[in-house]
Amino acid sequence: LAVLVKGLNALGVSPRDMISILQSIKTAGALQADIEVQ
Q: Residue 21: enclosing H or E segment and its boundaries?
């Protein structure tokens, strides 16, 4: 997960878009983690 987030940061993805992307990946069943937004 850290590698994915680093890659998205390197691409200049906004925090809001990153949350959306991670939630979509989780919904698709490709992410087995809880997403906690602070």
A: helix 15-27
